[in-house]
């Protein structure tokens, strides 16, 4: 609310005009004694101080102010002393009389005014006129100095605001890259917005521009740590995450293929064919909780089965089937569609896959490979598409199908992480397994854990109780990877060599663990500079991979004959080996 000065006869109010004149307004002190002294100095009868009472700076001496900071403050224990009281409120000041002055008055009976020339008219009303009183001249000088000081501060603040306004997204990206909060790819994405001025974000009463929205959404999606650092640590005026969520609600995200995302990928592909022209199509079904609720944005009930065809269903969805594309020659991924389903047959799933392949092809994006879990319905869908993933993989496998538009090969792969968990589960459930080299048994891994607990020393591996009793953590890939790892195989051999009798016949188990570990390393390769089995696949490795393709399936098919109930835990590795060799050919 606009404050008015409480002093007698003062008409100053808080406004733009008073601020331009350098006038500030100050609260009455909370200390009782000092506030009483202020009230006495004001000489206003029946005046009561409230929380809105203010005195302007014109009632204080210049020395009463502390101007060292950006905010002008009163010094401690100062009392207002400059007021324009009427004559009846002013104390009479009597001149002191001496004997000399009395004699002078008696000796001057004549009227000297008669002999004086006429006094010229005063020009005190001009701003440039000098006052007759030295006190008034001093007051005018101090007022001018205060005004100059105020202008200097405003100039300094304006320079600071100008420097802040010139701080663009480009300079921020360099800082974030040095702090490793963003990677090179995200930095490259955000450089499109490098000319945006950070200080222009979210001025009160102004809408965010399209570029500002896109920058905030991109940074928050791909670099949430960097976004939180800029907003919380540097206090940059970026939108709150709740605001970003509200913006995302306006995006058409209904079940089915997301045409907006597909069109965006088409634009990216036109800009960079190598990076965005070749992809892997991933699909996965995830369980969701049965729940129906009203969507305020679409003004419809959501939670029912929805295949994106606009048909109303009465069954409540229990799963969501998600489609995502991942760049083969670029570190990027994008969800392109989803479907709310209750139970999906392989035939229906095939139709959805074909539709996705056709839409991607229409935008110039070639799907080289399709990745999924090793679920029985996925195996059946692949067979319907044209693959030959038979129950008896001793016969040659066909791990690709023809593209519905171009007839080019589209290879299929099973999720390596899912295959690793299935292999671990097979070893635990069907142990012991008899092979040509001996007994493959889960008991050796259990014995390794018992010895490590008893002796209190881990033999260079991470096996613990949670790796043995994993029923409550079956989905954790790390537990399966640490169980069927090279370090566990080395530990078993070491215990056998140092004379532990219970590990005397562990060689077959060691070979099984090493085989699974090598397969997983090959299928989980990510680092282009890695060596050995973790090295990326290429034409230069064709000879080595062909040898791997000949040896490993023999081992895996023998296991399949011994554990036919766990067909899926073995067929996935065979499919992936065949696909890898076919793709690098």
Automatic annotation (TrEMBL):
On whether Plastid is a keyword of this UniProt record, the answer is no
User: Residue ranges of the THAP-type domain?
Assistant: 1-83
- Transmembrane domains' residue ranges: 554-575
Name a GO molecular-function annotation. DNA binding
Q: Which residues form a coiled coil?
A: 141-196
Classification via SUPFAM superfamilies? Glucocorticoid receptor-like (DNA-binding domain) (SSF57716)
Listed A to Z, the keywords are: Coiled coil, DNA-binding, Membrane, Metal-binding, Transmembrane, Transmembrane helix, Zinc, Zinc-finger
Q: By its UniProt entry, which Pfam families does this protein fall under? A: THAP, TNP-like_GBD, TNP-like_RNaseH_N, Tnp_P_element
Protein's name according to its UniProt entry: THAP-type domain-containing protein
């Amino acid at each position: 609310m606009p404050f008015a000065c409480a002093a007698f006869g003062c008409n100053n109010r808080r406004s733009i005009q008073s601020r331009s004149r350098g006038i500030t307004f100050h609260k009455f002190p909370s200390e009782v004694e000092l506030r009483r002294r202020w009230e006495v100095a004001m000489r206003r009868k029946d005046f009561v101080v409230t929380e809105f009472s203010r005195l302007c700076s014109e009632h204080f001496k210049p020395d009463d102010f502390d101007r060292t900071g950006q905010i002008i403050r009163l010094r401690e224990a100062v009392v207002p002393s400059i007021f324009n009281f009427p004559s009846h409120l002013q104390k009479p000041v009597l001149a002191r009389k001496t004997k000399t002055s009395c004699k002078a008055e008696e000796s001057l009976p004549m009227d000297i005014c008669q002999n004086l020339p006429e006094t010229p008219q005063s020009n005190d009303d001009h701003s440039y006129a000098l006052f007759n009183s030295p006190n008034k001249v001093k007051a005018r000088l101090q007022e001018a100095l205060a005004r100059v000081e105020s202008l200097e501060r405003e100039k300094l603040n304006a320079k600071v605001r100008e420097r802040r306004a010139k701080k663009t997204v480009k300079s921020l990206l360099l800082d974030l890259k040095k702090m490793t909060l963003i990677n090179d790819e995200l930095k490259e994405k955000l450089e499109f917005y490098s000319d945006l001025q950070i200080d222009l974000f979210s001025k009160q009463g102004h809408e965010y521009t399209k570029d500002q929205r896109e920058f905030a959404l991109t940074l928050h999606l791909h670099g949430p740590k960097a976004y939180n650092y800029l907003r919380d640590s540097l206090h940059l005026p970026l939108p709150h995450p709740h605001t970003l969520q509200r913006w995302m609600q306006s995006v058409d995200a209904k079940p089915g293929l997301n045409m907006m995302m597909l069109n965006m990928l088409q634009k990216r592909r036109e800009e960079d064919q190598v990076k965005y022209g070749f992809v892997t199509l991933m699909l996965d079904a995830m369980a969701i909780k049965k729940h129906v609720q009203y969507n305020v944005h679409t003004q419809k009930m959501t939670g029912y089965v929805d295949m994106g065809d606009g048909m109303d269903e009465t069954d409540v969805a229990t799963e969501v089937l998600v489609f995502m594309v991942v760049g083969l020659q670029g570190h990027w991924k994008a969800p392109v569609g989803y479907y709310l389903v209750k139970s999906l047959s392989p035939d229906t799933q095939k139709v959805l896959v074909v539709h996705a392949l056709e839409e991607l092809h229409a935008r110039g994006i070639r799907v080289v490979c399709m990745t999924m879990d090793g679920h029985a319905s996925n195996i059946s869908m692949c067979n319907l598409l044209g693959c030959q993933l038979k129950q008896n993989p001793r016969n040659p496998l066909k791990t690709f199908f023809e593209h519905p538009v171009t007839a080019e090969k589209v290879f299929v792969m099973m999720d390596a992480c899912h295959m690793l968990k299935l292999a671990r589960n097979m070893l635990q459930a069907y142990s012991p397994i008899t092979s040509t080299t001996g007994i493959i048994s889960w008991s050796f891994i259990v014995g390794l854990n018992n010895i490590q607990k008893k002796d209190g020393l881990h033999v260079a591996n991470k096996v613990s109780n949670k790796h043995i009793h994993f029923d409550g953590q079956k989905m954790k890939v790390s537990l399966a990877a640490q169980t069927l790892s090279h370090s566990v195989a080395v530990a078993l051999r070491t215990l056998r060599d140092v004379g532990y009798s219970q590990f005397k016949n562990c060689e077959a188990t060691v070979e099984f663990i090493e085989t699974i570990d090598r397969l997983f390393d090959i299928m989980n390769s990510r680092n282009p500079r890695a060596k050995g089995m973790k090295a990326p696949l290429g034409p230069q490795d064709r000879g080595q991979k062909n040898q791997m393709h000949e040896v490993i399936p023999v081992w895996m098919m023998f296991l399949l004959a011994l554990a036919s109930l766990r067909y899926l835990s073995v067929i996935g590795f065979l499919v992936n080996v065949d696909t890898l060799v076919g793709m690098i050919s």
